[in-house]
Amino acid sequence: MSIIGHLINGEDIQLDEPKQSVFNPATGEAEKSVLLASASTVEQAIASAQAAFPQWRATPPIKRARIMFRFKELLEQNADEICRLIGQEHGKISHDAAGELQRGIENVEFACGAPQLLKGEHSRNVGPGIDSWSEFQPLGVVAGITPFNFPAMVPMWMFPLAIVCGNTFVLKPSERDPSSTLFIAKLLHQAGLPPGVLNVVNGDKIAVDTLLTDERVKAVSFVGSTPIAEYIYATASANGKRCQALGGAKNHAIIMPDADMDNAVNQLLGAAFGSSGERCMALSVAVAVGDEAADALVAKMKQAMTGLSVGAYDNASNDFGPVITCQHKDKVNGFISSAEQQGATVVVDGRNPKVEGYDNGYFVGATLIDGVTAEMDSYKAEIFGPVLQVVRVKTMQEAMQLIDDHEYGNGTCIFTRDGEAARYFSDHIQVGMVGINVPLPVPVAYHSFGGWKRSLFGDLHAYGPDGVRFYTKRKTITQRWPSSGVREGASFSFPS
Ligand code: NAD
């Protein structure tokens, strides 16, 4: 069984440390195991990043960017291998893994603009003969902690931008599917990154806590579930670090009576069940306005769902794969059962589907539940599985109130033909990312990603322009070179 180690100072590191199995969720087999770093291993990675910082900080941004250009090419050349590694450990189908990788590459493309992004701000003659400018300096060693559901994309939301801004990085990927992340980090070294600028440590809470408390780490980016995000934000802040911690979600789509229902159904299929619903932007609740819209939606969804196929990652005709672990499969099935017990109707039941040749895989089929209410456990929680719940309301205001009352505020969307309704919705809804007839409004790499309420802890969103601000600190310089003959006396008030 192969062992997945760490990447510290540009070298593969295998130590005598505890291990955890890494499963193929389609077969249920433990095919590899991953080392769980001790505090001293993480400290070694931090020391390596710390040592690399002075020289990397002094490297011109254009030279940092050139490494990213080569990295992008290597990612494209190695796309099949990256998607295979994602599929083997996460379970997502090859076409979905390719989409994830592409979104990651777009963040590398954004990072290639480092010289432009770091130009700063300049004002001449802010006073007589006085110039002033702001520059954006790197923070030092920064850390990233990432979730299982996007093992390639989410790390690439973080380290390419942090690194081109002049920081050095320690990344702690998810211990459930670390291979693609590690492979990608090695490609960046192949592209010419000096040793120590990016280090990868695999591990669990021990590794994370070391990153959160070590005073050499200046900032922490986290993406994962809300309880952990809250802990990360509180601990990093208490230890004097800058922190952005992106958490969980419950994303609602409002289906207005005037919506193009066939289009809405097509969009909902991919947004609710794609990647087995294991996306923080997955649409998991359809809020139908009026019984006519609700009846039409449920009937058309039911019909469309008969054609969906769940299976293993390497068969591209499958629509989505297994969920991540056996425990998670049980949890998703438990939420479906609880909705049923609490009075909802399971219209399409995906519990325990038969997948030929994969009897031990962690599969849940696409599930549709009607008549869900805000009091039900399945409504309140983030299920993170291929389950779409339909809530019936009478008015758009009622639909918006439901969304605003939910603890999460990551993404949302409205399906309508009415521009006025759409504008009112995007203007007032208390959610960070909004789609108008667009089911997964994930911002492109040159905007920034983030939710509101308990979907994000911190002031700045991830990647894009906010990412540049997060990974740099502003320094403002005010400068005068007095000409030799002129000397002013002391002044005790601000110039007026
Ligand atoms: P998770 O919170 O279990 O794990 C995320 C990371 O935290 C992993 O690296 C893990 O090792 C670490 N971790 C887990 N428990 C910890 C603990 N007690 N102390 C310290 N570190 C700990 O999340 P997950 O199951 O890997 O990912 C799914 C979750 O991530 C979902 O809630 C999803 O909505 C969320 N997510 C959010 C976004 C976003 O942008 N808002 C994006 C992707 C995923």
Automatic annotation (TrEMBL):
It comes from the Bacteria. The lineage of its organism: Bacteria, Pseudomonadati, Pseudomonadota, Gammaproteobacteria, Alteromonadales. Residues 19-477 form the Aldehyde dehydrogenase domain. It comes from Thalassotalea litorea. Its EC number is 1.2.1.27. GO terms for molecular function: methylmalonate-semialdehyde dehydrogenase (acylating, NAD) activity. Keywords: NAD, Oxidoreductase. GO terms for biological process: L-valine catabolic process; thymine catabolic process. This is methylmalonate-semialdehyde dehydrogenase (CoA acylating).
